[in-house]
Amino acid sequence: MNGDLNTKPLQGELWRKFMGRAQNCSPDLPPDAIHTIPACPPPSPGSLQECVGDTAMKKVSWADVVAGKRADSRNGLGSSSTGEPPTRSQQSVSSVMVSRRRDAEGRALVSSSSSRLISRQGHGPGAVGTCTGAERKHDAHGRGKRGRGEDEGCRRTAIAVSEETHRSVVKGTSEMSLEYAGKRQRVDGDGFAGAVDPAKTSATSSADLESMMKQALGRIDSLERRHEEMKTSMGRENRALREGICRLTEDNKASQASMERQIEDLRDDIETLKSKNKALKWSLERLASKVQEDWEYPVAIQPDEYWQNKGYEDEAIEYLKEGFFEELKEAVSQLEHGVCEIVTVCFVHHDEDLMPHWNVLFRSFEHINPYGEGVALYLRSIELNEEMMRQICNHIRYRNISRVEFRDNAFANMRDAISELGKSLKSRKLKSLEWLQNRIESTEDMNLFTRVLTHSNAVDKLTFTSNGNGNAQALLAGVDFSRYKVLNLFGNDLRTNGQTDISDLIAINSPLEELDLYYNRL
């Protein structure tokens, strides 16, 4: 090497830590001898692990090692430039660098690398010699230069560390490394470090593992027993449920068969009752006809000349005879004999001479059968004053009259007639109201008609036709038709006017069976 033999402070954090630890390990070694080494290569990372321990090695990177090697090459601190093999005084100490790190999942990963510590040793206990060659010299930049002859002299005389001192340093360092490793193992617990007592640690680990395995097996056995118990219990419950379902199915089949038999029996009974009813009805009609042969109408019917003298025309007299007297006579006879179903009175004007005939009809209403479907009363083309309307509506209210029709009538007072009609609508027997061609002219009368319909108790069939005078729209807005089965609103000049009365009526009326809106302006 060129230049004088001179000492140079070694660079880097790694080397300073190593030197400090070496000083602590061997107090007999002079500090100058440790911190100043003539032309000798620095120790490798492996030798640093031997003295400093695992903690120091954690701070060493491969970049530092490579940089150190490159610096050694530049400074001539590598192998001898003469190419001679290392002498016996160069003691080789192998060490293993063990480092720890954790991967992304937290598992400890261990890596190791081998290195060699090259130390130059002299002879003699504790001898520390100095170089006898040319002194180490520094240039302007502080870098030492050596001559070619200095390398040989340096190998013979520079820093001779006795074998005994070296052994004590290595021994102390090894003991400290083991002690530190044991402490770190106790602190870290799960980290990888040198075991103080491998046999004891292995035995303890085996015992712990065996205990954990026994606990796990016991837990598994317990869970398996519980699982088997649950399976057994569920199996019993499933069997019980299946048996219950089978019993219920059989009971259901038996009940269904029994109900079918009962339904068939009821059908047979109904047919039998219908047949008996027809037979009884025929018998009653025959008996009534026999009785009626001797029955006489209680009021005398005046001849045609009487009505002609009163100013009746022949056509009016003919309507009076056929539409009033004949119908009235038949209705009274049937009512008194209890076989009447329909009472029809038509084609008659108000006349005081006809009041006896009306009174006979009203008295015969007392014979209406209170049971059964009731009687239908048709009043067509009749002129009715307040008294006649009051008596008719009174009988409708208190007799078994289920259907009433007012068609093309002339009321002396429309408002009073509607009021009396409202009283009759309180009957629980009345189911159907037909108001045809009885024009309600005023809005007040139409509002009154709407109110009386609203207070009806049992009517579910309404026929309100040809009564429009532009005010029949009030029915759609003012009457609750939600329970009606039949609605016939034919010819009332109804309009929608952008409203939803009719659609709402249909939407809220689930019982509705028939709706007639023909001949309106919809």
TrEMBL record:
Keyword Transferase in annotation: no
Organism annotation: Thalassiosira oceanica (Marine diatom)
UniProt keyword Metal-binding, yes or no: no
Domain of life according to the entry: Eukaryota
Gene3D superfamilies xref list: Ribonuclease Inhibitor
Biased composition (Basic and acidic residues): 134-153
Bias type Low complexity, positions: 88-98
InterPro entries from the UniProt entry: LRR_dom_sf
Residue ranges that the Swiss-Prot or TrEMBL entry lists as coiled coil: 206-290
UniProt-recorded name of the protein: Uncharacterized protein
Region of interest (Disordered), residue spans: 71-153
Keywords, comma-separated and alphabetical: Coiled coil
